[in-house]
Amino acid sequence: MASPRQPGRAGPHINTREPIIQEPEASEPEATRRTAGVTESSRANRGWWDRNADEYQVDHGTFLGDDRFVWCPEGLDEVEAELLGPPEELKGRDVLEIGAGAAQCARWLAAQGARPVALDLSHRQLQHALRIGGSFPLVCADAGALPFADGSFDLACSAYGALPFVADPVLVLTEVRRVLRPGGRFVFSVTHPIRWAFPDEPGPEGLSVASSYFDRTPYVEQDEEGNAVYVEHHRTIGDRVRDVVAGGFRLVDLVEPEWPAWNTSEWGGWSPLRGNLIPGTAIFVCERD
After folding, report:
1. Which residues of the chain have pLDDT under 50?
2. Could you tell me which of 187, 186, 49 has the C-alpha nearest to residue 129?
3. Residue 39 neighbours by CB under 8 Å, 6+ apart
4. Which of 58, 81, 260, 273 is 20 to 30 A from residue 224's alpha carbon, by CA?
5. Dihedral, CA atoms, 72, 78, 80, 82, nearest 10 degrees?
């Protein structure tokens, strides 16, 4: 799944739609910065994505597409990036997509001859994967407790899925390592940590530092009773590298995609203005020895 604050993947227009049938929020949540643990973060984000999956797929359908694998709002395409390896070498490989949303990346992987499994915390997001179609398995589960045997996959990937929303990323990385075979690769993209120091605005007002880059306090939206309904966690670049190592991986590349001239999209804090000046995405390429 892609972050609603920072949408994650690009692609052609989705031409399959269904009406939005989810009920709107009773009241606008309060945005704050406070601690949020593993259980609270998981519960809040499962509920948020179940409630907002329809609106998210409609709003970002043109950008997401049905069956392309694009890592980030900058538009870096796996066809060109080959972060999982050359496309011709994906045939017959078992691949786990974590935080799959409507499984656009898994659908692309299947078209290359891979055997993907699309996993997401949100049941409603996976219903959109069913709506679009595909012959691969869909699994509703938490990334911190993967329901697979040790050594089940050759590769794992996550395009703006799971990692920005979990309180304990090492738990997720350890689980991913467990289900990968020796020599397996895990590639994941997240909002570039430097973005947390700037306002989430696409214009000039989003170019001035507004908070400390070193403040790891989570961003939380909570209801009138103080219950979290959405949580996103900040890690510095150094934190992410240490998490990768603590999870049992070797970091082989860190990709910071530049904003391409063809991309004129503007939404949330994403825009050509900001994208040409500060990085928006960090992609970690990790291998299991």
Report:
1. 1-2, 4-21
2. 49
3. none
4. 58
5. 120
Cα-based torsion angle of the residue sequence 166, 169, 173, 176 in order, rounded to the nearest 10 degrees? -10
Residues 190 and 282: beta-carbon distance below 8 Å:
yes
- Scanning 1-103, the segments in alpha helix (DSSP H) are 38-59, 61-64, 78-81
Neighbouring residues of 32: CB distance < 8 A, sequence distance ≥ 6: 220, 221, 222
For residue 95, what are its two tokens? Answer: 């691949």
For residue 239, count CB atoms less than 10 angstroms from its CB and return exposed for 0-12, middle for 13-18, buried for 19 or more.
middle
Integer Cα distance of 179 and 158 in angstroms: 14
The percent of the chain in helix, strand and coil, each rounded to the nearest 5, is 30, 20, 50
CA 121 to chain centre: 12
Q: What is the rounded distance in angstroms from the CA atom of residue 264 to the CA atom of residue 43?
A: 35
Q: How far apart are CA 50 and CA 112, in angstroms?
A: 30
Four-residue CA torsion sign, 245, 249, 252, 253: negative
DSSP characters for 176-233? HHHHEEEEEEEEEEEE-GGGGGS-S-SSGGGGS--S-TT--PPEEEE-TTS-EEEEE-
Beta bridge partners of 116: 95
Residues 280 and 192 sit within 8 Å (Cβ to Cβ): yes
What's the predicted TM-score (pTM) here? Answer: 0.91
Predicted confidence at residue 95, as pLDDT, reads 98
What phi-psi label fits residue 114: left (phi over 0), alpha (psi between -120 and 50 degrees) or beta?
beta
CA separation, residue 228 to residues 44, 220, 225 (Å): 6, 6, 9
Count CB-CB contacts under 10 A for residue 61.
19
- Distance, in Å, from the CA atom of 212 to the CA atom of 196, rounded to the nearest integer, reads 8
